[in-house]
Write a structure and sequence with these properties.
The chain is α+β, with helices and mostly antiparallel strands. It has an 18-stranded mixed sheet that branches. Strand 7 and strand 8 form a beta hairpin.
Length: 428
């Protein structure tokens, strides 16, 4: 499914990027390496979402796994979803996406080779039985990013933040209009940059607030099915996300009524506490989230989901890891309250759930990769099957009707952003 929060954040970054050559140092040691970052990351996303084909095994497995992810007891025994069993308690499948004659073709298999070009990917999924109704999902995805280095990938948010450190926001908006012509056209089919506020405080730091709006009516004019899916399943989302530690807040995201607002305070692209002071964001902070959405006649969600947000800085590796070990307060229909307790607590006990996105240097390989990993324990139960049933409407609506149009939009938008950014970096 389309990575919703990632699209919102990248939309804000794309629209707020001020169109200046000053972003180059954050994206690479010079203009050429910054352009390589644009080719590898933005071009990789564009290449990934060209016309997509899946062989029969990959297509069927994807459908069955998406529908049974929250209630895996039956899925574990579903031979159409898996290719092999590393041991009696584990089921596994892999597929590789490769560019073949202008299409991204996904083929299921076992001994698959690493991605060789930006946008190509290698996916492995494992479902392990822990006994009884308890299971553990493990997902590993390697995404090709060409010559983009881990340091440059980690510099993308720094470039975005630094680009907004200007008092003349009217000039910043004019630069976006003039320099990012193609990006504005493609991203503008879904999003509108409503406001950029950037003010320097007494300490010399910049207080920034960016506001972006999703316009589903406009999206429907270019992409009728995708626009309807966004209206049905994204417009109802309410979310508040905050990075904090010890009474200090480094990022604050709010999504409500199709409006995303991002607030932070910075100097030279580095984040400082919103409350004031000079402390840089530590490598480990608390990420706290509230989330709700409407599915069918129900509004479902949670409050006070807290986890560790860890910045990874290792030789040849840069990225971010999130670990969740504390169960949130659930917001569920009254009838579901009786089905709570252990099933919804399972993802947060023992080692909890982890998600990471880490850029990895591969000097001996064909290219560097963006490695995404996920480890999530689940417990099959009536409440999980109930939630899975509600969520399947969104999944099937996307796969059956909206996916093809969303792929066109993603590919064209990131292609335009890459080309505009490279033109800005080269001074043309």
């Amino acid at each position: 499914m389309i990575p919703t929060r990632r699209v919102w954040i990248l939309a804000a970054a794309a629209l707020a990027l001020g169109g200046c050559r000053a972003v180059a140092p954050a994206l690479g040691t010079d203009v050429q390496t910054a352009a390589a970052t644009a080719d590898g990351v933005l071009g990789g996303v564009s290449n990934r979402f060209i016309t997509i084909e899946r062989d029969p095994k990959a297509r069927v497995a994807r459908q069955h796994i998406a529908r049974g992810a929250l209630s895996p007891s039956r899925l574990f025994a579903d031979t159409t979803a898996w290719l092999w069993s590393p041991d009696p308690s584990t089921r596994a499948i892999g597929w590789r996406g490769a560019n073949e004659n202008g299409k991204m073709v996904f083929r299921a298999g076992r001994n698959l080779t690493p991605p060789s070009r930006p946008g190509e990917g290698l996916h492995h999924l494992h479902l392990r039985s822990l006994g009884g109704n308890a299971f553990e999902w493990k997902a590993d995805v390697d995404f090709g990013i060409g010559g983009a280095t881990p340091t440059a990938v980690a510099g993308i948010p720094v470039a975005w933040i630094a680009a907004g450190e200007r008092a003349d926001t009217a000039a910043m908006r004019a630069e976006v209009r003039n320099a990012f012509v193609n990006s504005r056209r493609e991203w503008g089919r879904l999003f509108t940059l409503v406001a950029i506020r950037s003010e320097q405080d007494a300490s010399g730091a910049w207080r920034q607030r960016h506001t972006v709006v999703l316009n589903t009516a406009r999206a429907s004019r270019s992409y009728p099915a995708f626009g309807k899916w966004l209206k049905d399943y994204i417009s109802p989302v309410r979310m508040h996300l905050r990075w904090h530690r010890g009474g200090r807040t480094w990022f604050d995201f709010t999504l409500r009524y199709d409006t995303l607002t991002v607030a932070f305070r910075s100097r030279n692209g580095l984040v400082l506490p919103l409350e004031g002071g000079e402390e840089l964001q530590p490598d480990t902070v608390t990420m706290e989230m509230e989330f709700s959405t409407r599915l069918s006649i129900f509004r479902l969600g949670f409050e006070q989901l807290r986890g560790d947000f860890i910045t990874v800085r290792e030789p040849g590796r840069r990225g971010w890891l999130m670990r969740f070990t504390q169960e949130p307060d659930w917001r569920l229909p009254p009838l579901a309250e009786s089905m709570l307790r252990s099933p919804l607590r399972r993802p947060f006990i023992l080692g909890g759930s982890t998600v990471s996105v880490i850029a990895v240097s591969k000097p001996a390989g064909p290219q560097n990769i963006l490695a995404r990993k996920m480890l999530v324990p689940v417990q099959d139960s009536p409440i999980m099957r109930f939630l899975g049933h509600l969520g399947n409407a969104a999944v099937e609506g996307y796969v059956d009707r909206a996916e093809d149009e969303s792929i066109v939009w993603i590919s064209s938008s990131f292609d335009a952003l890459r080309d505009d950014l490279k033109r800005v970096l080269s001074g043309h």
